[in-house]
Amino acid sequence: xxxxxxxxxxxxxxxxxxxxxxxxxxxxxxxxxxxxxxxxxxxxxxxxxxxxxxxxxxxxxxxxxxxxxxxxxxxxxxxxxxxxxxxxxxxxxxxxxxxxxxxxxxxxxxxxxxxxxxxxxxxxxxxxxxxxxxxxxxxxxxxxxxxxxxxxxxxxxxxxxxxxxxxxxxxxxxxxxxxxxxxxxxxxxxxxxxxxxxxxxxxxxxxxxxxxxxxxxxxxxxxxxxxxxxxxxxxxxxxxxxxxxxxxxxxxxxxxxxxxxxxxxxxxxxxxxxxxxxxxxxxxxxxxxxxxxxxxxxxxxxxxxxxxxxxxxxxxxxxxxxxxxxxxxxxxxxxxxxxxxxxxx
Length: 345
Ligand code: SAH
Ligand code: SF4
Known about the structure:
By secondary structure, the protein is α/β, with parallel strands linked by helices. The chain contains eleven helices and twelve strands. The protein has two domains: 10-55, no CATH class; 61-342, TIM Barrel (Alpha-Beta Barrel).
């Protein structure tokens, strides 16, 4: 079945054969500029609305939605047409809103501490399924402007490269969200980083590092065995040389695992020469991993150690923990497709 935002202008024109030519632009604007379903397009004849509603089914059905106690974070659980489920999270800040979207149902990368990794891989999302999450969030954010899109929901975006890239192009061209306000977060899929370095649009790149020596990273992030730190860092240099965009390292601080002075020193050694900005976030506990987040004093201490070595680090707020919407907590607990499969390490 087609999903609305997987339909390009030519296909839309084919669907509208027999209608006046201007209908194509009219419907296109309704879908993209106003984010409307065909059934809500009051500028179309009623019969056409019904016909389009059937021909262009939505990719996402809202199964559940939760809003945090402070109302600044909303999480959706969506069901896709085949029953697979994904989540996205909308966060409001003073000036703008940011949506954190999924690029895959589940994830095959198997990072120990991540709830999505714990559920395994279900399937790739299409570009239209990715885009529709942004369309929904933009509508919900009103009257605030949805300014930023981050690929930090479920899945590894660079393991679904072509569809993620197609989505980025559409978001910029049709929704007017500049690539500079989009961030792709990767656990370290090196061929994908290299491809991204040579794309024409300047998206931001975040590397989920979490450990700066191979022996530890091999355990936390199984993909490190395939692309060890030296390989990953050369890809980062390539990205910087080609793009000159700020690179960031994500670091989930796990109590007594990766928050020691040795870790700070090793992290600084990788971050400094790249000029990378470090985002620290205390680990959000998940059911499948025994580690705990570093307590606040330890987080401040780790940040101070980085600062003393000349590395800029920001402590990221733990948004949405009360609705299980925080980083790494996205996992679909039940659904017709059941659990995914984890690729054996
Ligand atoms: N697969 C991509 C993007 C999705 S994960 C990636 O790994 O980068 C988004 C971010 O959440 C990543 O930085 C990831 O490492 C982090 N994360 C995963 N589990 C977490 C947890 N339990 N607590 C805090 N951050 C977590
Ligand atoms: Fe996948 Fe990212 Fe979770 Fe690792 S941290 S399992 S790559 S979603």
